[in-house]
Specification:
Keywords: Isomerase. It comes from Methanobacterium formicicum. This is NAD-dependent epimerase/dehydratase. GO terms for molecular function: UDP-glucose 4-epimerase activity. It is built from nine helices and 13 strands. The chain is an alpha/beta fold and about 300 residues long. It folds into two domains: about 200 residues, Rossmann fold (3-Layer(aba) Sandwich), CATH 3.40.50; about 80 residues, UDP-galactose 4-epimerase, domain 1 (Alpha-Beta Complex). The strands form four sheets. The chain has a seven-stranded parallel sheet, sandwiched between helices. A two-stranded parallel sheet has the order 7-10. Helix 1 packs across helix 7 and helix 8 packs across helix 9. It is globular.
Length: about 300
């Protein structure tokens, strides 16, 4: 993609900032972010000549003005934590459902060509019929998961009723540089890296045999670009189709850091699912089939944390 104007909601966040980093090289990028979980430090290394900031909450600011002249919108702004959504379902509903509706309305009214919606594998819930395909019935088990399922439905509704092309990307477990390890609800990989770097034992909720389909953030960026420029709509799994247990992460991170920290096991968290694995055959129509070297990608992530002293 080049010579376009695009908006990235949540563009100061973990995934959003990587998307901005790629897009701003050859396009004009508008970032919409309220800095709740995102940070300007995530893009401080970029050339701002092609970047403009519209700081504010998607539920409050004038998104039509934000999206003026934009060809595409990448919607990543969200309450992106299962435990946080369980603790505050009303706020989750406001940000993830009402916020998504406002993004879609503004995109429609601004003449945007397509909206790419960041959804989640959480919409499948604790479904044991693995691998999970896009035809698998949705079974959300947390307010976060429910909000993403509703967001997908709104995307399809706007495509059907208002002829606004939309595509929903169901991310599985994304990891990579710039994930926040200091959040109360930090994702497992940055949590493990941060604690081991500090000489502390990583905390595993449950027995550690729960498994995830981990995907590196650079592949997520590539999937967004391919989905945006395609003629396809609907929902697509964005994952590797490979499963890793939480217990398997600890020795790899220990080895990379030259440490030997045994994990602490705590009670499982409410709303967390046991296993997750994607059927990625449908996403191949997007010409998206990432080459995966999990150990190397995890190593790159660890080295970023070491270099940036996220301790």
């Amino acid at each position: 993609m080049r010579n376009k104007k695009v908006a990235v909601t949540g563009g100061l966040g973990f995934i959003g900032s990587h998307l901005v980093e790629r897009l701003c090289q050859e396009n004009e990028v508008v970032i919409v972010d309220n800095e709740t979980t995102g940070s300007i430090k995530n893009i401080k290394h970029l050339d701002f000549s092609n970047i403009s900031l519209d700081l504010g909450d998607i539920t409050e600011i004038d998104l039509v003005n934000s999206f003026e002249g934009c060809d595409y919108v990448f919607h990543h702004a969200a309450m992106a934590s299962v435990p946080a959504s369980v603790a505050d379902p009303i706020q989750c509903n406001l940000v993830n459902i009402t916020g998504t509706l406002k993004v879609l309305l503004a995109a429609r009214d601004s003449g945007v060509k397509k909206v790419v919606f960041a959804s989640s594998a959480a919409v499948y819930g604790d479904n044991t019929n693995l691998p999970l395909s896009e035809s698998t019935p949705l079974k959300p088990v947390s307010p976060y998961a429910l909000s993403k399922a509703v967001g997908e439905m709104y995307c399809q509704l706007f495509a059907d009723i208002y002829e606004l092309p939309t595509i929903a990307l169901r991310y599985f477990n994304v990891f990579g540089p710039r994930q926040d390890p200091n959040s109360q609800y930090a994702s497992v990989i940055p949590h493990f890296i941060s604690r081991i770097l500090k000489g502390e034992r990583p905390v595993i909720f449950g027995d550690g045999e729960q498994s995830r389909d981990f995907i590196y953030v650079k592949h997520i960026v590539e999937a967004n670009l391919r989905a945006c420029l395609s003629d396809f709509t609907g929902a697509y799994n964005i994952a590797t189709g490979k499963r890793t247990t939480i217990n398997q992460l600890v020795p790899v991170i220990n080895q990379t850091l030259g440490r030997n920290m045994d994990p602490i096991y705590n009670e499982p968290r409410a709303g967390d699912i046991k296993h997750s694995l994607a059927d990625v055959s449908k996403s191949e129509v997007l010409n998206f089939k990432p080459s995966i070297n999990f150990a190397d990608e995890l190593g790159e992530t660890v080295q970023w944390f070491v270099k940036n002293s996220c301790r």
